[in-house]
Specification:
The complex is a heterodimer. By secondary structure, chain A is mainly beta. In chain A, 0% of the residues lie in helices and 59% in strands. In chain A, the strands form 2 sheets. In chain A, strands 2, 4, 5, 9, 10 and 11 form a 6-stranded mixed sheet that branches. In chain A, strands 1-3-8-7-6 form a 5-stranded antiparallel sheet, with no helix packed on it. In chain A, a hairpin with a 7-residue loop joins strand 9 and strand 10. Chain B starts with a strand and ends with a strand. In chain B, the strands form 2 sheets. In chain B, strands 2, 4, 5, 6, 9, 10 and 11 form a 7-stranded mixed sheet that branches. The chains are: A mainly beta, B mainly beta.
Chain lengths: 111, 113
């Protein structure tokens, strides 16, 4: 059974204070690891896809990295508008198609 | 934004009544999914479709059925709603399923009283 664990559950940072969110996963044949951002009352918004260990993707203040057991979402010099819940998900080669999600990290950036 | 429209956006219904949620896409993507999101559980897959009339079960399919008669529409039916089905339901679409990302709609908040 695929499992995704995100930590911390919640994180409060000052504006400009860089940090990292963690996503640990256990899957039978990784077909992709995905990061999403979710704002209150909205659907998840796609950010990145990573396929193999060592891969990195960047977008504005966000950078996602992948190892064989975990992924990190690095947030550099965050702004209040980066406040959201960040979700990690995996696709595996076994079982039903679809994504297996972690419970998310609720990020608050204080001005 | 991906062309995904969910309807209704909010619904309150009584225990034991049937309920149908609709997902409509304008992207012509082959794969469509229904998820539910609950506090403490994250997003969980209910059912998915890999083509017209081709559907399969996900992790939490009991009490739900789906239908897909056209590429653009994917319906989720609660045959007899229960309070445990109070949740936020999200539809998602994906161009090729395996290996590719999914794009989500804005959600339907369903309350069963």
């Amino acid at each position: 059974e695929d499992q995704v664990t995100q930590s911390p559950e919640a994180l409060r940072l000052q504006e400009g204070e860089s940090s990292s969110l963690n996503c640990s996963y256990t899957v039978s044949g990784l077909r992709g690891l995905f990061w999403y951002r979710q704002d209150p009352g909205k659907g998840p918004e796609f950010l990145f896809t990573l396929y193999s260990a060592g891969e990195e993707k960047e977008k504005e203040r966000l950078k996602a990295t992948l190892t064989k057991k975990e992924s990190f979402l690095h947030i550099t010099a965050p702004k209040p508008e980066d406040s959201a819940t960040y979700l990690c998900a995996v696709r595996s080669g076994g079982g039903a198609d679809g994504l297996t999600f972690g419970k998310g990290t609720h990020l608050i950036i204080q001005p | 934004d991906a062309g995904i429209t969910q309807s209704p956006r909010h619904k309150v219904t009584e225990t034991g009544t049937p309920v149908t949620l609709r997902c409509h896409q304008t992207e012509n993507h082959r794969y469509m999914y229904w998820y539910r999101q609950d506090p403490g559980h994250g997003l969980r897959l209910i059912h998915y479709s890999y083509g017209v009339k081709d559907t399969d079960k996900g992790e939490v399919s009991d009490g739900y059925s789906v239908s897909r008669s056209k590429t653009e529409d994917f319906l989720l039916t609660l045959e007899s709603a229960t309070s445990s089905q109070t949740s936020v339901y999200f539809c998602a679409i994906s161009p090729e399923g395996q290996n590719t990302e999914a794009f989500f709609g804005q959600g339907t908040r369903l309350t069963v009283v």
